[in-house]
Amino acid sequence: MRLGVNIDHVATLRxxxxxxxxxxxxxxxxxxxxxxxxxxxxxxxxxIHLRADRRHIQDADLPxxxxxxxxxxxxxxxxxxxxxAIALMLRPKDVCLVPESRDEVTTEGxxxxxxxxxxxxxxxxxxxxxxxxxxxxxxxxxxxxxxxRAIGADAVELHTGAFANATGRDQTTALQRIIDSxxxxxxxxLIVNAGHxxxxxxxxxxxxVPHLDELNIGHSIISRSIFAGLENAVREMKQMxxxxxxxx
Length: 248
Fold this sequence. Notes:
44% of the residues lie in helices and 17% in strands.
């Protein structure tokens, strides 16, 4: 499994103080520094989410991040004309279409691809025509997987929030849904990624999920970086993806 590191919360910290004064020479923390530290720690890609309300990542961050990258950019976005147009101009390696609500703190739940096929298919076609690989952030559900394949997506990112938030038998059941969904997506020829709520305590369970190409993790790594530094926090997580538990 590869590791994608989401650095949105580095921008969240920056915006907490410098939202109204982005041009000050004292602005920190730097997303460019975050990219460099994450890649030194072993990140295989960098994820950022350009939201319609610009609550963390700003338009000016996009070229700076892309020019700094030595790996690849995974740009998360909602299916809105303005943001899709920016993605088409930027042409990152990967785009992940996600649901987006101004009321949520962070993305909660997967995109309803099955209920929005016509609208999403047009966006997927435009992005792919621009040479961008397109993923759908969806709940581990067979109908959503099949709809993602039907609209021409290259990949799915399985939402692991229900698993991460559950305990005991409920967590075992949620993990099995992810396993079954990964198998189903792989059979349909889709690349399988996963993410949301994964941390240093539960990520080892992802070794049980077949065909996983990449995990995208943000909040837990940024939280750990407060005490360990970002490069070390990424390195620790990366090692957990490389250390396959005995019997897996």
